Amino acid sequence: MTAQAIIQSLASGLLMGLLYGLIAVGLALIFGLMDVTNFAHGEFLMIAMYLSFFLFAFFAIDPLLSAPLVAAAMFVFGAVVYLLVVRFAMRAKANAGMVQIFTTFGLAILMRGLAQFFFTPDYRSIPQSWVGGKTVSVAGIFLPEPQLIGAAVSIAAFGGLYFFIHRTDFGRALEATREDPGAVALVGIDKNRVFAFGWGLGAALVGLAGAIMAVFFYIYPDVGASFALIAYVTVALGGFGSVFGALAGGIIVGLVEATTALLLPPSLKSVGIYAVYLLVVFIRPRGLFGSM
Amino acid sequence: MTISRRDVLLGATATAALVPLAARAQTSEVVIGVIYPFSGGSAQQGIDAQKAYETALEVINKDTDFDLPLAKGEGLPGLGGAKVRLVFADHQADPQKGRAEAERLITQEKVSAIIGTYQSAVAVTISQICERYQIPFVSADNSSPSLHRRGLKYYFRAAPHDEMYSAAMFDFFDAMKKKGIKIETLSLFHEDTIFGTDSGNAQAKIAGERGYKIVSDIKYRANSPSLSAEVQQLKTANADVLMPSSYTTDGILLVKTMAELGYKPNAIVAQDAGFSEKALYDAVGDKLEGVISRGTFSLDLAQKRPMVGKINEMFKTRSGKDFNDLTSRQFMGLIILADAINRAKSADGEKIRDALAATDIPGEQTIMPWKRVKFDETGQNNDADPVLLQYTGGKFVTIFPPQAAIAEATWPMK
Predict the structure, then answer these.
(1) Architecture of domain B163-295+388-400 in CATH?
(2) Which of B:174-213 have CB within 8 Å of A?
(3) Parallel, antiparallel, or unpaired: how do β-strands B83-90 and B213-220 relate?
(4) Can you tell me the ipTM of this complex?
């Protein structure tokens, strides 16, 4: 094992980790806001990847350009899902937690089925984009451009999110609703509007990740599943509901995955992630940066 | 006659054994169960398979002019012209769902035989259920060698298995070495279900016997979100030949990641699966010029045997795709099974089994480059010669063995 191989693995792990963070943060946001785990999170990612693909296939819009469009469309989609589905699931009098789980889980299966029906299960990919397949090489370390752009977008999105939550009125309303949904109603904040906005924002963030990923990953109806699992681990590791826990969790997952694959046979590379995850959950059940 | 649920429940063993017999005795049609993944990650394979089986069904049930068993005349003459009907079931790539579906097909749909399954892991459980109910199972496109070594009486495979394929690859390497080309080290890269594991084991075994050195043997987790660590190791090992055994999704990611990490092997010799899929070449075909994959089918054969081209057109109008290694085997699988049912003159599982065991179809009466179809006592056809195909200028050409080849291999890849 050469020093170069180690650095290469760490670099790949870091780039992938930043993207894992971006995929997971929408999940963390929605959970933090209203204690609902969105089990259709991976399918949101899948829809975003297809959107990006179709914008490329029909209108030749490069995924990097269409990323904001996809994020905007996903924002609307997320808000609509809240208003049409989740809002009603939350009204359940008995077993509210279970109802929410099964609602979002059912939504996931429905979305997967619809995707398979309308888009066919064939594997799609975007063969030619501005950065697709291109690589920057620094001292023998290869950094794929799509992942570099993904990492940059991820950092920018987290920066923007920080600014939004701490510096804008709506961000403050979001935080306040998260802390005490009952009290905000008294000061005239419409809880439903905030929740719908939170779902929109969460979907927009995973939409951004999906648009970037469409450049270097294949697209098919089940693609969300493998990333959703990583997103749940990331959120649990970083801290339920903590936006910056998601960033830290993503980076840790990416790095641990890369190092495990370097030290152990690659078929065991997820073992490292789940070992770290178990350890953290045992010692600190709310996750590394969880505040609840 | 009608069978109520209560009848079936009354004395489970007796009913299960007798009712199907009675129900099958005087039918004007024979029902065959077809089990594939129609949802989930491999659903496209199931959908393509369905088109292949429907093409075969047209050849069997309608009057066509091909030199294939059952092509001329309508239906099965041995059963008074009875038509074949297919019942499709979805196993979702899950061996347990496959087992349940097989059981349902046998007990509820009264199928006379089952054919499937794309994933070898699912073929394992389905063939066991078939054995228990004494219903023949035709493994149309599974390639794991362990499948026919379980002492099953009702298991049949007309196509080659991975040891035969792998042996062909090493025959090819030996031939290339005789021409003075340096092939000493190999990298194996295989996924962690039964297909990849069996393939990797077969390749490691033959490599040892013939004196090739395996410099990296990477068993990876199927459907991983990232393969950069794996590719990094392949790159470090830098073998003369990279030998992947991967399904489509992993194949696409592997090739993309290799390009990203600047790894370009001298040659890739793939164990089919993803590397025979149009989707993979649509996605990353530009990076695969010169890749070699094994197969049992080659459209080149149409030059010698025109019916191959015509049947391919029939399939293409249905699916929009040319026959590939999988769909051609599926097509042939149903023809072979229907031929046996016809000769058995019965829809009874045991009689069909005996007819299958007595099968002897010359290679010219298939769409494959095989010597013939004749099963040994384990249900394996050992005369199914594999071919090696090279991807050149957007299509596959046969490069090995010499008697089937229409072009010389390009080595290194590009």
Answers:
(1) 3-Layer(aba) Sandwich (3.40)
(2) 192
(3) unpaired
(4) 0.86
